[in-house]
Amino acid sequence: MSILRDNINLGPGEIRRQIKSGFVVAAGVFNGISAIQAERAGFRALYLSGSGVAACMGLPDLSFTTMTEVVNEVGRITDVTKSPLIVDVDTGFGEPINVTRTIRQVEKAGGSAIHLEDQVLPKKCGHLSGKKIVPEEEMVHKIRAAVSARKNPDFLIIARTDARSVLGVEEAIHRSNIYLESGADMIFTEALESENEFRKFAREVRGDLLANMTEFGKSPLLTTQQLKEIGYKAVIFPLTAFRISLKATQNAYEKLFSHGTQASMLNSMMSRNEFYEVIGYHEYEKEDNELAGDENE
Questions:
Q1: Domains (ranges, CATH) in the chain?
Q2: Is this model's pTM higher than 0.90 or not?
């Protein structure tokens, strides 16, 4: 089997199937190699965080990134993975007409789902103070634009509400139900502050729910089993691997600068052979030889 043809992304139908059959656990990834590693660890759904895209560029999560930059990363990830990818598109990169183009571009790049939030531009990380949200009607227009723009009806439109931190739990529940009535397939309940709040959302929101288990935020770190028991249908772990990699990278640079050699760190590294196995180096090399007519090399 050709490795270049075997990495065919399963797409929106697969994420719909996972939701219908049980529960979606999406690992946060930030580039192609991290996405491959997540799949090798067993994950069958992936998540691309807007904050992660910005952070990889050395920027804060304050609406600095463009639609094109996010879409390019989507394409790089889906080119080398099979699992459906949920994509953070922040506020949709503009007004309803901009949301329309965003959906079409993400879908074309191989994404299987997006989540769209009701913050005012420029948005902030959902777990920081000082957020502002748009009027309910403005978000409704964006959701309807997103639904009308998708070509594949299985492409998932997830509406995220940040109302909990701004206007309280009851308003967040109200908005969630309005967003579902407007065509959203699932609700992303951001920055809930207790397990009881997660349970209240599950009781009172009339649709499927996605939880965000990000570190160092306002929400308790519930397990996938707890969330399933509460009644949620999906969970994302946006930046877990990214934060760990940052810590490891910083330590490596400090030791390298201090010692002037990497010799003491070899046991902490992925070896060349291990890295080649992850990216399928030898399979690509074999295919290159076959295509060039050099089967014996």
A1: 3-245 (3.20.20.60), 261-291 (no CATH)
A2: yes
